[in-house]
Amino acid sequence: MLRQRTIGTLVTSSGIGVHSGKNCKISFTPAPVDTGVVFCRKDIAGNPEILANAEYVNDTQMCTAMEKDGVRVATVEHLMSALAGLGIDNIRIELDSPEVPIMDGSSAPFVYLLQQAGIVEQDAAKRFICVNQEIEIREGDKFAKLLPFDACRFDFTIFFNHPVLRRGSNFFRLDFSSLRYVREIARARTFGFLRDIEFLQSNNLGLGGGLDNAVVVDDYRILNEQGLRFPDEFVRHKLLDAVGDLYMLGAPLLGWYQGYKSGHDLNNKLCRKLLAERDKWSYKQLDTINSSISYGAE
Ligand SMILES: [Zn+2]
Hints:
The chain is α+β, with helices and mostly antiparallel strands and 298 residues long. It has a domain at 3-126: lpxc deacetylase, domain 1 (Ribosomal Protein S5, domain 2), CATH 3.30.230. It contains six helices and 19 strands. It has helices spanning 77-86, 108-117, 178-185, 194-202, 233-246, 264-276, and strands spanning 3-7, 11-16, 23-30, 37-41, 49-51, 57-59, 65-68, 71-73, 91-95, 119-125, 128-131, 135-139, 142-147, 152-157, 171-175, 191-193, 215-217, 253-260, 281-284. Strands 11, 12, 13, 14, 15, 18 and 19 form a seven-stranded mixed beta sheet that branches. A five-stranded mixed beta sheet has the order 2-3-9-4-5, with helices on one face. Helix 4 (194-202) links the parallel strand 16 and strand 17. It is globular and about 50 Å long. The protein binds zinc ion (ZN). Residues 77-78, 190, 237, 241 line the site of zinc ion.
């Protein structure tokens, strides 16, 4: 069977929060089987904890933020994506600020850090959420859906009427394995429009955002001197986001995700709908030999 995973040892990093512009120290420690992904605010008395779960997501405007009993942890999406990508089930993440550092705007720095910690198999079966019936959230022409599928597949399509964003492919498919995630998805950075960033910063938001942690485009071109990491970096990043958003289900996915112009909000609604419609999914374990999903990236 495929086993649950945690990390081998404590690792620590730091970086700025993209919205607060403030420095945050973040440390990762191993956690026992069936813990899940637990965030802990070290800067608050009593060190309150929040379990990563779609039901605690209360803000999807600028990032994915969770809140429970008045305690908030924001910008969790790229870190959740890295954890999903490496198949880490159980981990404790301590922060001294309300916001996970943005790092370079991708999940690659988290992947690297977690690989440095070593990934350790644990003495319990990994539990997948197996989609048994189609489920969909649709708003206007946007949709996010899950279909039954005997593996884990993510399809994403973007559509932007912009000369730069139209250039690369607007579709990406990830037939999930850790190796493919690390090679094809993890390095794709978030992106933003210069006018939106200027507007945000004039309203005291996005204070840590800039060319070090996002691909920034104006009306005609990419402003980052080094250009893109992939010709289709934009759609790959949207897929990276979807992988992280879906990991808020609290277990890895056995199913086929399809996103069309979707984002954190639609993805979260999809997770909530699936969790609420208990007859449409079941927990499943997978044999190592015949598994359609591989976590052998490290
Ligand atoms: Zn993102």
